[in-house]
Amino acid sequence: MNRYLKNLNRIEFVVTMECTGKCKHCSQGEHKATGCIDKTLAAAAVEKIAGEYNIKSVMTFGGEPLLYPETVYEIHKKATELNIPERQLITNGYFSRDYDTVRLVAHKLAESGVNEILLSVDAFHQETIPLEYVKAFAESVKETGVPLKLQPAWLQSVEADNEYNRKTKKLLNEFEDIEIGEGNIVFPSGNALKYLSGYFDMSKKQKSPYDEDPRDIRAICFSANGDILGSNIYRNKIEDILSGYKPN
Questions:
Q1: How far is residue 93 CA from its own chain's centroid?
Q2: What is the DSSP-derived secondary structure letter of residue 120?
Q3: Within the chain, where are the H helices?
């Protein structure tokens, strides 16, 4: 076991960088990359990692991960087989305009073992994402019994009074029977830095809340192109990547 990864307990996958939204708060920028991570390699990586480390959580997100639902199913099926207790999906809920497809995907997510869905609803997403399809997805998820939470993005802080947070609160009221999760605070990177910089004190050094301590990594995240820990699963075996990892 690599001593820098001894506390590793979470695996994340950016399934794809493709997205159905064009959110001005997005830390990833314009999402121009296409394609998704190979589902077979991703599932195999989960099995290899869980065989050596005490993995408690697997998450899939994007981009919009449900543009490639089969990849999401495969990853979570493997996590379920391995009895990894927390199996989360973050989605904006907008991946199809066909209501039958929306319902089918929701039910297949449940069958694959996803046991928590975080639904991104806020002023930023709803600038370009139609709420009617998000609601249809939410209703379909509720049919399955999979726990569902709203995952809003807040500008500056949850308490901050600005036009975006006010709109977000109104949008959340459209989902009266769905629990509101803690959400996340917009970080000035990518589109957020481009479009929302006036809301941040740029004289201060900004630290991402998602940065890991490189000498004590608790979560690893696979990029849609296979990048992980300074290497890539298309070029190297995941076990070799893990064993060879050293912080810069």
A1: 12
A2: -
A3: 39-52, 69-81, 99-112, 131-144, 163-172, 191-195, 238-244
- Judge if pTM exceeds 0.85: yes
Q: In angstroms, rounded to a whole number, what is the distance separating the alpha carbons of residues 92 and 134?
A: 7
- Give dist(CA 143, CA 13) in Å, integer: 26
Evaluate whether 229 touches 245 at the Cβ level (below 8 Å): yes
| Encoded tokens for 209 | 């809340």
Strands 116-119 and 227-228: unpaired
Residue with tokens 């990864």: 5
In a 3-state reduction of DSSP, which class is residue 193? helix
Which residue in 224, 226, 221, 198 sits closest to 210, CA to CA? 221
Environment class of 179 (CB within 10 Å of its CB; exposed 0-12, middle 13-18, buried 19+) = exposed
SS3 170: helix
Q: In this structure, what DSSP letter does residue 21 have?
A: -
Label residue 209 exposed, middle or buried (CB < 10 Å: 0-12, 13-18, 19+).
Answer: exposed
Q: Which two tokens stand for residue 218?
A: 């608790």
* Residues β-bridged to residue 231: 228
Query: CA–CA separation, 156 vs 201, rounded Å?
Result: 10
Phi, psi of 241 (to 5 degrees): -65, -45
Tell me, rounded to whole angstroms, the distance of Cα 23 from its chain centroid.
15
* 146-196 confidence digits (pLDDT tens): 999 999 999 999 999 999 999 999 999 999 899 999 999 999 999 999 999
Roughly how many angstroms between the first and final C-alpha of the chain, as a whole number?
Answer: 19
- Summarize pLDDT for 52-81 with one digit per residue, the tens: 999 999 999 999 999 999 999 999 999 999
